[in-house]
Specification:
382 residues, Cytochrome Bc1 Complex, Chain D, domain 2, Serine Threonine Protein Phosphatase 5, Tetratricopeptide repeat, mainly alpha, 49% helix
């Protein structure tokens, strides 16, 4: 039962973080202005006003409050995909999505604040914030696969940072607040554990034991559960136990179904496919699968992934729209590997920000047909 910052204090903590980031505030105001400029009474947008880039396409939806899109913008900024790399902006958008319960954003905030990635600036390290967001993501029923990944990340974080977490004063807290603050991160806010070996009280796990046995487990620890006697008094532990007995006595909700991602076979084709993708495709479709321009599919979002391998290979060989034919540039085995790698990009996006920062020295990028001038941000060939 790792220590979790009380959820009721979440708004206050986030307000402090937001207040510390004037850049994020300024960024928000700029995005609001951008949306206002597109939300005029002049009717449908003209061809020149239609979004050209992926960022322009999704920004209004993020500002309007869509947490899935807010998380997406955070991912874009974190990797500099379709925008300039900006950790402050990534942090801002992840926070917006996480506050609305997006489990992917919650886990990514935990990763960002734990500095599990060396390239993240040291100023973002905050053990208490990492603990909070890892806990929420691990117990979030929104996406079982992300919850499992969050639980795994949380294990690694706790192993290295448990001593750095600030203890929460008991005061006159209720059994519910103690459970939410110290137990829910592992055992689940709804009683279904985020960890495979943690009891799920909603299923009655361990509740056949006597109060004395359970209190001993809480205060002295059991298995990987720490000994909370160093942090909680016997009275506080008793309050938490009373809440568990009362809340989950007649629990009837169904547990989450287990989700297992199918393993992607790799006999060397994916490594070859990645090499080809970064050189020939990433400039337009994004090195992490997020396209710069709206007329290029973003594979990370699953765009065009409903097509069969045969259809994708046909598009690569013969070209599609503004995309040229690659039939005489790439060998069949290279195209096979390319299609296999493209299909991993959506999974990479779902798995969060632990991926490497891809930025090859040389790659191809094409401007859309008919597009010239200030809308273009790079050379035709890099």
């Amino acid at each position: 039962m790792p220590h979790l910052i009380q959820p009721t204090a979440l708004c206050g903590r986030l307000t402090q973080v937001f207040g510390r980031s004037m850049l994020a505030l300024g960024f928000f105001l700029l995005t609001m202005a951008a949306v206002a400029s597109t939300d005029s009474e002049s009717g449908p947008q003209s061809a020149s006003e239609r979004p050209l880039t992926t960022y322009e396409r999704f920004l209004p939806l993020a500002v309007a409050g869509d947490p899935m899109i807010q998380h997406f913008l955070g991912y874009m900024y974190f990797f500099g995909e379709g925008v300039e790399l900006d950790y402050e902006a990534a942090h801002y958008w992840f926070h917006q999505a996480a506050e609305e319960g997006d489990s992917r954003a919650q886990r990514n905030l935990g990763i960002l604040h734990s500095r599990a990635i060396e390239r993240v600036p040291e100023k973002f390290y905050d053990a208490s914030e990492a603990n909070l967001w890892f806990s929420l993501a691990a117990a979030n029923p929104q996406n079982p696969e992300v919850s499992l990944m969050a639980a795994q990340s949380y294990d690694k974080f706790l192993a290295a940072n448990l001593e750095k977490l600030k203890p929460v004063k008991e005061g006159k807290r209720s059994g519910e607040s103690i459970y939410l603050g110290f137990c829910a991160g592992c055992h689940g806010f709804d009683g279904y554990a985020a960890y495979p070996k943690a009891p799920s009280f909603a299923r009655g796990d361990r509740l056949d034991k006597s109060d004395q046995v359970l209190l001993t487990s809480i205060l002295q620890g059991k298995g990987k559960m720490p000994d909370w006697g160093k942090t909680l008094s016997t009275v506080a532990a008793g309050k938490a136990l009373s809440y568990i007995r009362r809340e989950f006595k007649q629990e009837t909700r169904q547990p989450l179904t287990e989700f297992t991602r199918a393993e992607v076979p790799d006999d060397g084709r994916l490594a070859l496919g990645e090499q080809i993708y970064l050189k020939f495709c990433g400039g337009c479709h994004g090195f992490n699968g997020i396209a710069w321009y709206v007329n290029s599919p973003s594979f990370a979002l699953g765009e065009r992934m409903d097509k069969t391998d045969v259809e994708l290979k046909h598009s690569i060989k013969n070209g599609r729209g503004a995309m040229p034919s690659w039939e005489y540039m790439l060998q069949p085995e290279q195209i096979d590997g390319l299609v296999g790698f493209i299909r991993t990009l959506a999974q990479t996006y779902e798995s969060g920000i632990l991926g490497e920062l891809r930025r090859p020295e040389q790659f191809l990028r094409f401007r859309p047909k008919g597009e010239t001038g200030s809308n273009w941000t790079g050379d035709d060939v890099r």
